[in-house]
Amino acid sequence: MHGQQHLWRVEQGALRIDSAVAGEAARFMRLALPGDVIGVEQWVGTDDRLSFRALTEVRLAPLAANGTEMMQILMETVVVAHQRCREVVSLRTGPVAQRVKALLLMFADSVSTGATRGCDIAVPNLGDMAEILDAAPETVSRVFSSMRRLDFLQDRKPHRARFSSLTLRAQALVPGMTISSLMLRNQLANA
User: How far apart are CA 141 and CA 147, in angstroms?
Assistant: First the structure.
């Protein structure tokens, strides 16, 4: 998409957007989820080299606008960019278990904002998740194993996860590498 000045709205799925300035390697910058407009960076003339990669099955719709309609799109994009910036911070700081939880909920919310019970959600593969979360793939895998043992996650396949966003959202602490899952399960059972 580099060099083009087209705007697109994400209708379905998730895109990973990486950015690089001249002479540097591309790095994860943000996710684009349903409703987001992509291409604004190139349209306004940024000199970043952007790359877009589908993390799940994606459907895009071209946007053709001018005048007041274009101003509204640009204003919406600024608001969404601020939200995506906050999300990236939450996905790259704090305990890995909390980052995994935040990423899963982002993908669940991009499909449906309502609380779902045991729905299959399209998610990135383990390697992409680890890069987005700035964590080792092994650590992310251990978090998933812990979540399965505690029934926060019913199933995970390379590009899908089955979980209840309502149940996962209600968990104040998702066990990770620092708390024994067995100990936490016993505490929950005795509460």
Answer: 10
The CATH fold of domain 95-190: Arc Repressor Mutant, subunit A (1.10.10)
The torsion defined by the Cα of 55, 60, 65 and 70, in degrees rounded to 10, comes to -30
Q: What is the pLDDT of residues 7-16, one digit of tens each?
A: 899 999 999 9
Q: Which residue has the tokens 């940024």?
A: 46
Q: How far apart are CA 42 and CA 51, in angstroms?
A: 11
Q: Which residues pair with residue 52 across a beta bridge? A: 17
pTM, full prediction:
0.79
pLDDT at 58: 96
Q: What is the CATH number of domain 7-91?
A: 2.60.120.10
Identify residue 5 by its one-letter amino acid code. Answer: Q
Q: Which of 91, 125, 126, 86 is nearest to 105 (CA)?
A: 91
Q: Provide the b/e sequence for 106-144 (b: ≥16 CB within 10 Å).
A: bbbbbbeeeebeeeebbbbebebbbbbbebeeebbbbbb
Q: How many CA within 13 A on the CB side of residue 102?
A: 18
